Amino acid sequence: MVATVLARWRMTAPAFDLPTALEAREPPEARGLARDEVRLMVATRSDGLVRHARFRDLPELLAPGDLVVVNVSATVPAAVGARRAEGTPVRVHFATRAPQLDESWRVVELRSADGARPARAPVRERITLVGGEAALELVAPYASGARLMLACFHGEGSVDEYLARHGEPIRYGYVTGRPPLAAYQNAYATEPGSAEMASAGRPFTPELITRLASRGVLVAPITLHAGVSSPERHEPPFPEQYEVPAPTARLVAATREWGGRVIAVGTTVVRALETAARPGGVVAASGGWTALVITPERGLHVVDGLLTGWHEPEASHLQLLEAAAGTSLLAHCYREALAHGYLWHEFGDSHLILP
Hints:
Blueprint: H1 2-12, E1 39-44, E2 50-54, H2 58-61, E3 67-71, E4 73-75, E5 79-83, E6 89-97, E7 105-112, E8 126-129, E9 134-141, E10 148-155, H3 159-166, E11 191-194, H4 206-215, E12 218-224, E13 240-244, H5 246-258, E14 262-265, H6 267-276, E15 277-278, E16 282-283, E17 286-290, E18 305-308, H7 317-325, H8 327-339, E19 350-354
Parallel strand pairs: 1-19, 3-12, 3-14, 4-11, 14-18
Antiparallel strand pairs: 1-2, 5-6, 5-8, 6-7, 7-10, 8-9, 9-10, 12-13, 13-17, 15-16, 18-19
Helix pairs in contact: 7-8
């Protein structure tokens, strides 16, 4: 099924090459911008129009009675140095807990010591983690793939305690310098658990959230702990842990009843809300693990609009964006983003898709 979905996607995805000049290599603050001063492209599906703005213009782009749903998962320091049994240094990215197993079982990705490329190790190999006080036993490939592995952690204390002492944020090769963990946190993040930042929400500031509230735009939380998204692979998202709390479910229902729009901040929010959706577009309080993959054929049942970043060519998230924007408008947006020099990746610019 995954192969079928990806084969179909490659036929319809916006085809483009991402110039290295459009890779955001550092946080906007290092470029002299506030978080909410990144660029924002606004695309409206009803008329097909595209406008250019700044993220701080968001309150004026939404209407009183709209609901903005954010992911309050906080980024954990999920990258650690390690050494293979034969002595080769590697880097381990802790992706997520393993569904239905205790917390010592983790899904991990091995990469080269500089983090620049994937690494491979055989099943049952024991890898010594930095500090020498802990190790990982690689047990099996995860989800029938070749990149992620199911591993068992051996050490004093919990995995989270170990990462708090020795971990760093996951950084990919396009990032210059070593931005601290704080650079990978959203302003409203409260629940540690994401291997990588739910980056669509990074431009929000406390002041911007206050302006939204002053305009009558509601804000509600969900939690979805995001795994790793290796830049070399364009896979459908793996199962992730989520929670849609009852107050948020009630706000979604009320917003739809009075004619407001439900605006998801990021693909993680879309995945959580659509997982919790029931027939007829009703959202119920829900939690656990979601394996939902949203395609244009499946469509969106609850979410009306989407705030997101810019995704790489053939990234599986583009299927979800096509469900939100439609094929032609999405392709138009990406042509515009390339032509106008929008920046990609977690420190880049933003994209608002409205119905």
